[in-house]
Amino acid sequence: MDPLDHYREIVRRLIEEYASYKPAYGDVRTEAVMDRDRDHYEVVQVGWNGDRRVHGSIIHIDIRDGKVWIEHNGTDARLGEELVAAGIPRSDIVLGFHPAELQHLTGYGVG
Q1: What pTM did the predictor assign?
Q2: Which of 42, 52, 74, 103 has the fewest beta carbons closer than 10 A?
Q3: Selecting from 3.40.109.10, 3.30.470.30, 3.30.310.110, 3.40.50.150, what CATH number does the domain 3-105 have?
């Protein structure tokens, strides 16, 4: 299997898994948003918690230039480690929420 297709499949499974979790509060649904043509993958929460609107990205992952970019992780999970365990090399994972000048310190790839 082509490495890029392999990465897409791993990311798709991870996104679907996290989108299957229902928050313990409010009338909030969790959705998987996947655009394979542009390699953009997110888990978003939408709904209401009492009179407060809930809408936002929980996980945001992109695949760019052959690397998996974790752009946002609003969970307690160690997404990078989950991706490594699923078969993506550390060097092909970039923690995009860290500044470019610090990415080499993360133990993962750089953008």
Answers
A1: 0.93
A2: 52
A3: 3.30.310.110
